[in-house]
Amino acid sequence: MEKYLDVLKACPLFEEIGDENLLRMLNCLGAKVQLFDKKYTIIAEGNPAKFIGIVLSGSVQITQTDFFGNRSIVAVSQQGEMFSEAFACAEVKAIPVSIIATEPSEIMLIDCSHVLHTCANHCGFHQQLIFNLMKSLAVKNILFHQKIEVTSKRSTREKLMSYLMLCAKKADSNSFTIPFDRQELADYLCVERSGLSSEIGKLKKEGIIDAHKKHFEIL
Amino acid sequence: MEKYLDVLKACPLFEEIGDENLLRMLNCLGAKVQLFDKKYTIIAEGNPAKFIGIVLSGSVQITQTDFFGNRSIVAVSQQGEMFSEAFACAEVKAIPVSIIATEPSEIMLIDCSHVLHTCANHCGFHQQLIFNLMKSLAVKNILFHQKIEVTSKRSTREKLMSYLMLCAKKADSNSFTIPFDRQELADYLCVERSGLSSEIGKLKKEGIIDAHKKHFEIL
DNA sequence: CACCTTTTGTTGAAATTTCAACATACTTTC
DNA sequence: GAAAGTATGTTGAAATTTCAACAAAAGGTG
Fold first, then answer.
1. What is the pLDDT of residue A24?
2. CA B127 → C1' D20, Å?
């Protein structure tokens, strides 16, 4: 576990918890680490939510797929970020999304019931954990608001621009890299890939943005 | 405060807290009640989030409005439900939404810092409050997932049908009332009002649904 | 480096949505 | 209960998106 310490310390779930305590706590929580290859499903839709996931390396996508096979990318979690914590906290019987590794990824899984309920040996950090979890859930709520602000736009162009402006704000720079290829970006913005491609082309021609692969710049 | 006891007891924030303790706690938290007329803004976009809101009577809408004045309805909160709790917990400097009363509404406002930080006289329920808040945030996260599942659909018909099916599931009946008029439903589903109206008309003609004003039935 | 696979861009036709405008129905107010 | 205002349904034209198909580019593999 020691080699993951730097990532874990940066994870909001473990804020205000010292290094040494962190290691002991992980043990107490029964945290386990698993490696998933690219495109592997970490948690499949329909399963009960038991685990909080933490991305130690790599990255994951939270996706929904409807009857007709249309994929929608709800969110991504990258190194140091959590996923599935809301489902686990709410103890949902069947999660409505699938969690998929987008590259070879090391994932820490923590049984949420261990976080929520005080353990026998009173390791004494549950209150802090619950507080941190609450903060993280609040932050994720706000991220959803941002996503809804983007996808509530009516046209492909508006969705794309408001997404790119959000990225620029987050990166604190007009030049940034997005975590999506074209198809994935389309699935995230809920638009057609071909329409998105041509819209990117138009914005480039108009001198509003510059784009190469996953790298974008707002001019 | 006594007259609000029934509503407050049903509010997830006060779960596992007895009647008598609840009243004392409200006092300790400095909870205040305000009446807002229809269409009045309870919290305006851009203000710092300080308060957790609880709808004692009436109902509120959480809305976003872009530069061009296009309104999008993010969510509604009805009697016994909270709003703005995520922004307050995350202590955001400028909330990205406006909260508006959709009818004359009694609103309880609680300074979130009083919930998060233990008070001087150690009234002793903060841990339970924080736990409840965490649960509520998790549930709201899941509601966002549901909203995203609805609005990520590409066509007006699909958005409408998946919204109505969600309502039916929630009501546990094929017959239910939605909290929106036509324009509001359009703003919630992120579609055009006139297109929505005609789609409702088509679905009625096809015998798939029945609709009168805010009442719907899936056949 | 050649081959195969995947990703991206492009195109035009079909379908859908938006927009604007108006008619009708329903509410509210005096 | 008449008048004014608001909400809903309807329409057709314009704009946009989706769909399907293909070409070009990029990436991976032996």
1. 84
2. 58
This prediction has a pTM of 0.92
Domain check: are B168 and B203 in the same one? yes
Q: Which residues of A touch B72 (CB under 8 A)?
A: 148-149, 152
Count of CB contacts below 8 A, A vs B? 110
- Give the span between the Cα atoms of A1 and A25, in whole angstroms: 11
- On strand C, nucleotides with any atom < 7 Å from a protein CB are 7-12, 16-21, 27
**Do B52 and B112 share a domain, yes or no?**
yes
Please judge whether A64 and B148 are an interchain contact, meaning their C-beta atoms are less than 8 angstroms apart: yes
Domains: count for chain B? 2
What's the token pair of residue A42?
A: 């970490």
pLDDT single digits (tens) B97-140: 999 999 999 999 999 998 888 765 556 678 888 889 999 999 99
We report the CATH number of the domain holding residue A21 as 2.60.120.10
State the alpha helices, DSSP H only, in A11-111.
Answer: 19-29, 85-89
Q: DSSP letter at B45?
A: T
Please list every residue in chain A whose beta carbon sits closer than 8 Å to the beta carbon of residue B134.
Answer: 89, 130, 133-134, 137
- Strand C closer than 7 A to residue B183 Cβ: no
CATH number of the domain that residue B213 is part of: 1.10.10.10
**Last residue of some domain: B126, B149, B172?**
B149
Same domain membership, residue B178 and residue B125: no
Position A123 scores a pLDDT of 64
Q: Which domain holds residue A206?
A: 153-218
Do A110 and A50 fall into the same domain? yes
**One-letter-per-residue 3-state SS of B2-32:** HHHHHHHHHCHHHCCCCHHHHHHHHHHHCCE
Contact B104, B42 (CB under 8 A): no
